[in-house]
Amino acid sequence: MRTSEAMSVASSRPTAARGPVLTFTGDPFRDGLETTMVHQLDAIVAMADGRISHFGPAERIARELPPGTEVRDFGKDALISAGFIDSHVHFPQTPMIAASGTQLLEWLDKYTYPTELKYADKEFARDVARVFLQENLRNGITTSCVYCTVHPQSVDALFEEAEKQGLRLAAGKVLMDRNAPAGLRDTAQSGYAESQALIAKWHGRGRLLYAITPRFAGSSSPEQLAMAGRLWREHPQCLMQTHMAETRDEVAWIRELFPDRRNYLDVYDHHGLSGPRAVFGHGIWLEEAELQRLHASGAAIAHCPTSNFFLGSGAFDLFRALKNERPVRVGLGTDIGAGTSFSILATLGEAYKAAQLNRQALSAGHAYYLATRGGARALYLDDRIGSIAPGMEADLVVLDMRSTPLIDFRMNQAGDLAEQLFIQMTLGDDRAVRATYVAGRLAYERRAV
Amino acid sequence: MRTSEAMSVASSRPTAARGPVLTFTGDPFRDGLETTMVHQLDAIVAMADGRISHFGPAERIARELPPGTEVRDFGKDALISAGFIDSHVHFPQTPMIAASGTQLLEWLDKYTYPTELKYADKEFARDVARVFLQENLRNGITTSCVYCTVHPQSVDALFEEAEKQGLRLAAGKVLMDRNAPAGLRDTAQSGYAESQALIAKWHGRGRLLYAITPRFAGSSSPEQLAMAGRLWREHPQCLMQTHMAETRDEVAWIRELFPDRRNYLDVYDHHGLSGPRAVFGHGIWLEEAELQRLHASGAAIAHCPTSNFFLGSGAFDLFRALKNERPVRVGLGTDIGAGTSFSILATLGEAYKAAQLNRQALSAGHAYYLATRGGARALYLDDRIGSIAPGMEADLVVLDMRSTPLIDFRMNQAGDLAEQLFIQMTLGDDRAVRATYVAGRLAYERRAV
User: Fold this and answer.
1) Nearest-by-Cβ selection for B312 from A350, A357, A363
2) Complex ipTM above 0.85?
């Protein structure tokens, strides 16, 4: 029943997109781009019942398609990719992007919490959820891992809107029982009960997934962290998301709050809050022991470069996290509203800059992996989304590789695919997204320019 | 004769722009925004013969205008400002924006020098100059301080195109006699002679200005620096531009090359290459003694945040440079092609992030000052450009404060002017520029969206 609900949103009629395709069959950080990156200059991706039914060279696939399949040809200046994945974002902060002048802890008190108080009103939450999801589609994001507010109705509003779009989306009610204004606090017990009810209502309904969401150790008491750990043990198929080691001041504060724990990760780990499907936002200031434990437990870091620069938190050392001896799963996050762009291309451009500040070079191919299959792997969803292959869910982004006059000029000088991709992530923005498919349905199409 | 040539490009017919206006009457870093920032909600800026003839509340100015003045009303969602000033940019690198994978010194060898070799061909140079100037106008930049290549014809090409547009623009032939490929080297003597000829031809012709341009101490021998110093003494009204302390590796290398000099600035200063109208690109890794000397000599730093992140050079400490006891003049630079955007708004957003990484908050008002009057002051042109007042040259940018769906949504939540301006510099790009006036002529207008 639940599955059929979601599939009703998916296009039942077979459809197909034709053009150059980029996708990944494995992890280029581990095995190199040569063996993991697939680039076809003229391919067809056919979709039916919400999934990819065919993928391959256009000439061959065209002969295999069911009669009546509508093939949309995007032309040689397009690039068809799996939809982008945003592994860390706060939908309620959409109205407060670009709130300036402060660093993390003061920013929370001055801007975030006052804004989040408004989500007691479900209709306000719904209005913002619509804008948020529309921005996702405008930027080719087909899956995101979303923090709502402490209010269960903010979760309902987001999931209801996401369900209408047929999106594979993970979200959860924020748990926070201390160090926040009265209207934004739950308790260990109420947070547990409300989350449990939301899991029962939403997790696994259509393509929706629930993420148990203690905001961070500064705003959840040990009792609440313990209850979150219990809840996750009871629902291990849910995701678990929280923040960790975003700024040095925060790390120092958490050390004061939890003097008995070995390090920041141990605050969570102690309560069973690390493991597969755990997604830790930021992780800039982690020690080697924490990275080793993340690797061993199978948890992921969400790297949010625009946010880290905006709040002055620091430049995440991606290649340190990915070290071959103990690679940590890493996804990419916009972290709206501390992040400054819904554009995954722009976010990749800033990820390149964060790596450069660590004297490392992030290639375009590796970057696009992070935004697609790598993000899916961080969320343990790479068997369903993040790459283009028959049987995968049909979430696609179609890029326009010549979306502005400057990009057009620059592409005329560009050599290989790597350079062309790099131009997009350095100069591209929402205009570079020509179309977005969700579960085989054309969910967004850019107006003619 | 020369002046009349330039003025023939300026609109002779009186014209005017109406809408909200933002401008500065002084330095907000020194005297605060309260006494230096002017914001009028409904003003008219009238222009005649290339200059601003009237500025004030629309109702009053409308009565004072000569009959037949065409008043263009941009409406309440616009913002009229003095044109933006880019104090550091390489026009020949326009075709190589987003050349990835390396840091400064390797980036020069791998990408920059091979690209610059092409400018021996003047027609190639002209084609790029046109694209470059068009991008400037699309982004509201009405004055830039430009590095050409070592080839005099690259300077001719740029100035010829800038003259057609009537732009106030500074540029110069790069001097480089070592550590570069053969086709890009001049000699101390030939660089001097060619620069002298270019000064005679271009400096003061219409609104054009010559900038004596030793690339940097790594690519100019002591003899060439001495000749550059001599040339500047002979033509003290020219600008002098070079690079300094962009990366730590570069600083270490310069120390090896010039063991007798006290510090990096002293390499230039020793040859008379510091003083009013000197513009030093970057200056991230300067010592206190160098900042004191920059202040004392009246030289300026061009802060290029997108470039500094892109090459991993570091985060310039703006507030250290501006320290009240010995403020250094600071302008803003796109530094195309290591910079990643022609948008001055985007560049301000990245300047905010660079300041945040230094735990300092750059307010929007202060940022817009840097992009206009502050930049003009860095170039010693603030008596002519950078602010809106009768008698100033009529270079304007008209911003659209609701240029994308997300900005439009965010503006609905915005409170005061500071927040509205900050939204533009965080989320805005070329689309935010609705029109650009050069010397009173509407030189660019965005297509309807």
Assistant:
1) A357
2) yes
